Amino acid sequence: MDERIAHALVWLDYAAVAVFGATGALAAARRKHDIVTFGFFAAITGVGGGTLRDLLLGAPVFWIDRWGYLAACLTAALVIWLTGLGRGRQRVLLWLDAVGLAAYSVVGAAKALALGAPALPSMVMGVLTACFGGVIRDVLAHEESVLLKREIYVTCAVVGAGLFVILRGFGLPGLPAGLIGAGAAFGVRAGAILWNWTLPGFPGRED
Amino acid sequence: MDERIAHALVWLDYAAVAVFGATGALAAARRKHDIVTFGFFAAITGVGGGTLRDLLLGAPVFWIDRWGYLAACLTAALVIWLTGLGRGRQRVLLWLDAVGLAAYSVVGAAKALALGAPALPSMVMGVLTACFGGVIRDVLAHEESVLLKREIYVTCAVVGAGLFVILRGFGLPGLPAGLIGAGAAFGVRAGAILWNWTLPGFPGRED
Amino acid sequence: MDERIAHALVWLDYAAVAVFGATGALAAARRKHDIVTFGFFAAITGVGGGTLRDLLLGAPVFWIDRWGYLAACLTAALVIWLTGLGRGRQRVLLWLDAVGLAAYSVVGAAKALALGAPALPSMVMGVLTACFGGVIRDVLAHEESVLLKREIYVTCAVVGAGLFVILRGFGLPGLPAGLIGAGAAFGVRAGAILWNWTLPGFPGRED
């Protein structure tokens, strides 16, 4: 791969972890928590999804050997603590989170494929990487998890990871497949943010 | 082991994962979720307990290399989405879940013993394998977990895994020990379903 | 290391697991659960933090090969079941839990450093080891987790693990660094218990 692209990907990786971390700190801010709790939520949200991916794949957990990931989360927590978070900046964070979600759905699936997992488990791995940090955040914060809202969120990760895995299966190289997958995931998320897209709920009756 | 028995066990394994997955989809149905959430809950409930077992034992996670397990969960989610779930079928599912619970308490303990774990941790592994998928489902669905109900559920897994491990310790071969353990677990669960068996609660006062 | 100190540390380890386990059984007692649920909560609270640490570090999970840890948890559950838990004894348990918290923040960080992790991830590992059993207990018991209370708890683990890692970085041997770290952690926790110390909450407004 082009040296500069590889370099950009590493930065994107840190940026995505920091953005996810910031959403964790935001959850702490909503409840007026102290700085330690800010850091805890930022760390667990920022690295949670990738941690689960690495555990499931039997790979070394990515933030243990490179402390920069935790530092990125704690910095994000500190920034939110110091600057507060006005409504405008929350909006920015929402969009950055969409970028992270899109990027991570592809990154997670790519890592699983690279380690030899079949297509379907690799897709699931992409979805978990992108979404699980937020799920842990919501469970620990005692908030209704993103899983339980009708908002389209997990679906974007399914689209991104699924498209990437399918295009790779048809022989497309990693970079275009990744860009298309992440682009589609971001597009769906953008539609959900801007126009409140939702999928139809279960039509049946359960009794 | 007899070839046909080994074959039957593999099918039982997939069937148990699918049934657990269906109970996850059912949790999604109760809240009128969309199809993606159905799939997410089915997958996490279906493979959750076995995933934890494999992580704890340091074994490769069972569904990564064989995509059929995830496919079984997603199929179960689709079936429930398409057919709805009348009260009669929920009853069927309750009984199938009891079969899965009984089978998995033995399967989990057997895998732990095979990997060289001592008796007590192997029992615990059987209990976790059988119950943890449902526990994760309830935590993520923001429902009161099966742990917190007075209903006998975890106890069945304790009976199944415990009996299996003890009988193996006395030198009984795996197949009869497994059948006795799973049979006893199923029997206890059947009693709980049919006659609302419960164990006595903590008699003391905590203040 | 002195033979007797090594021996004392092993006992401290079992004692800490038993005390954490007892706090799990206490959560079960508050809701009048049955004996099986007592055991489940005791086990998951007692070994939960160390389990997460070992999984993240890629080390064999500590209680799989040595069944004494689970036995310590189950014994703690049984003791609380049989003796009940008056207000006086709850107070004792609170202080023992503070000792366990202090000890475990150092133990977790030391294990991570010994396995070659950098300073920051090792600190985080100490915090997770000390706190995560309690976090899982609260999530499964559907109670407000210790993370969400204003009470100083996680902070003590941050102090203990942080001080230990920093002192080790300055070349202090493990034993004095551990004693200072654990002592400071215990001191902070004691202040929180006796005088309701809290950290200032997030001063900003989030809208």
From TrEMBL, chains A, B, C:
Coiled coil: none annotated. Residues 11-82, 94-167 form the Glycine transporter domain. The keyword Iron-sulfur does not apply. It is found in: Cell membrane. InterPro entries: Gly_transporter. Keywords: Cell membrane, Membrane, Transmembrane, Transmembrane helix. Its main location: membrane. It comes from the Bacteria. The chain crosses the membrane at residues 6-28, 35-52, 67-85, 92-113, 119-140, 152-171, 177-197. It holds the Pfam family Gly_transporter. It is a multi-pass membrane protein. Belongs to the UPF0126 family. This is Trimeric intracellular cation channel family protein. It comes from Phenylobacterium conjunctum.
